[in-house]
């Protein structure tokens, strides 16, 4: 079979229906699946997912193109309300493609479950008692979720952390490390720590308070790297190696200054969240993990690294904790999420995490490149003007024409676009 490319020049110019058909064809979706993609979540299914349901709240769903990750092409579904996110990430993926695409890796999907123990007389003895019964406790954790164990997951280790001096007295925290395979794993890990708590109370003589997963998933990491050849970064009147150096400077700003780091990392999460939402994953968990990880050195910092080599080429890297799954929860119940996973055609949660971190790196590259060159508003303004043209009813070639005119006249309003359109059609009569 011919290798499928995610380079789809002119994809953005297609009509909505043509794009659905192109993606459906690309991903091999049958007629029923394409209908499901268009129909989305029904109020009936939504009502079964949450309490007190009154309907659904839709978001735009788009496709990022040009992604080449570990030698394979992907079309990336993204659910996001912010204009320019998808165009920008597709542009950055094209730049990365010029340097061979993204190289990624992921750890095993290991979650951490925490058990907080209080009212302990001898912290050291309690800690040793837990460690001495590790095998028994891990077997008890495995007994809670036999399906995950059957797929090769389950308890992998137990760790003990001591907090001798807290405002509520000495505290022992037990960490259960648990491989959740293709599930995000919140249910499995929470069930396991709740099940272990009474036995750990016996072993320590303490009282278990919280029994819950940690969202600082620093054992469940995914990393993406890319190299952008300097010439690919060149713009009108600016050489590529200069853009590369400015991107390195911009990244350094976010390494040293938390005020900038927050915005920088927000830009990364524009892309990561959009894929999380499209695939029915818990984006609040991923957000919490990313920002906690960004502060792991005691100061909140950029999650990315960018540096320029001697040739002027730009090298980027991003590592993120990514607790995402491809089975269970909304990934299966939500029809759009199911179809998005079909489009991605990933075979494991780790593969999904690898794609997401590549998207995060691309999103950051796009933002930094715009910021160090024309500024972010120019691109935004173009897309905004295009949306205004479409809202006023522009079609085909009119879209570009009206968009250009709205920007040139500095009047980006639907009423003005409609006025321009009526002028255009008069001329044609
Ligand atoms: C906007 O949603 C995201 C940016 O602010 C990110 C950044 O500044 O790096 C453009």
Characterization of this structure:
By secondary structure, the protein is of the alpha+beta class. It has three domains: 59-106 and 221-374, 3-hydroxy-3-methylglutaryl-coenzyme A Reductase, Chain A, domain 2 (Alpha-Beta Complex); 110-213, 2-Layer Sandwich (Alpha-Beta Plaits), CATH 3.30.70.420; 378-428, Helicase, Ruva Protein, domain 3. The chain is 52% helix and 18% strand. It has 18 helices and ten strands. It has helices at 16-27, 31-39, 43-49, 85-97, 123-132, 134-144, 146-150, 186-204, 230-233, 240-256, 258-278, 283-294, 330-333, 335-344, 349-372, 376-391, 397-409, 414-428; strands spanning 61-69, 72-79, 102-106, 110-118, 154-163, 171-179, 207-213, 221-228, 304-308, 314-321. It has a four-stranded antiparallel sheet. A four-stranded antiparallel sheet has the order 5-6-4-7. A hairpin with a 7-residue loop joins β5 and β6 (171-179). α10 (240-256) packs across α15 (349-372) and α17 (397-409) packs across α18. The chain starts with 15 loop residues before the first helix and ends with a helix. The site of (R)-mevalonate has 9 residues, from α11 and α15. (R)-mevalonate (MEV) is lined by residues 82, 263-264, 266-267, 270, 367, 371, 376.
